[in-house]
Amino acid sequence: MTGKMRMLIILLVVGVVIIGVSVVFLSRGGNSSGELTIGITPAPGNIITNAKSESSEVVLQTVKIDKTASDKQYIPVNSGQVVNAGDNVLTVGGSVQNNSKVNTHIQLYASGYDAAGKQVAWTLDSSGIVGQIGLQMETGQTGSFILHLNFSDKIKSIRLFCSNYAVTPP
After folding, report:
1. Is 145 within 8 Å of 95 (Cβ atoms)?
2. Residue 49 and residue 57: Cα distance in Å, rounded?
3. What's the pTM value of the predicted model, to 2 decimals?
4. Sequence-distant (≥ 6) Cβ neighbours of residue 115 within 8 angstroms
5. What is the mean pLDDT of the chain?
6. Count of alpha carbons within 13 Å of 116, Cβ hemisphere only?
7. Where are the beta strands (DSSP E) in the chain?
8. Half-sphere exposure for 126 (CA within 13 Å, toward CB)
9. Do residues 148 and 89 make contact, with C-beta atoms less than 8 angstroms apart?
10. Cβ pair 63, 156 in contact under 8 A
11. What pLDDT score was predicted for residue 45?
12. Nearest CA-CA partner of 156 in 38, 43, 17, 7
């Protein structure tokens, strides 16, 4: 066997190995942890507003978005699409700080949007108010949160919303 033939065989084997590794990597989505790169508003360090773009005086400190399997069934009122245990959902988790001097009852929720700005995901959780979670936080206190949203391949951005009250909302 000549040197040129040996070199061609080695290059062929290396090429097959590279293609095999690439196929495995791409079949896992390139991200085995479930963490996604979806835009989030507001960015950490900024105040979360309510749906009317009014300040809640609650600051988003950290945030992380993951795609996971739901651990329970959700029956959302917004989309009518039931999410069963084991179905894909998005979790939006992080920490917030309440800077309101009066309001200690925090309501958080999120919406997911496609590239055209159409809402394609809703908060599935419900604590007091359907589609929102509630936190009790004194002035200056920091707390953590986790929101569950229905999964859609079309989601390009998520917006967090926050309302707060002096008493627990009905």
Report:
1. yes
2. 8
3. 0.76
4. 154, 156
5. 85
6. 3
7. 39-41, 47-49, 55-69, 88-98, 105-113, 119-122, 126-127, 129-130, 133-136, 142-150, 157-165
8. 12
9. yes
10. no
11. 97
12. 38
Q: Which two tokens stand for residue 27?
A: 């079949």
The first and second tokens of residue 22, run together, are: 């690439």
Structure tokens at 51: 């749906």
* Polymer length in residues for the chain: 170
Residue-wise pLDDT for 39-98, tens only, equals 999 999 999 999 999 999 999 999 999 999 999 999 877 666 889 999 999 999 999 999
Q: Which value, to the nearest 10 degrees, does the dihedral of the CA atoms of residues 44, 50, 56, 61 take? A: -10
Count Cβ atoms below 10 Å from residue 103 Cβ, excluding itself: 18
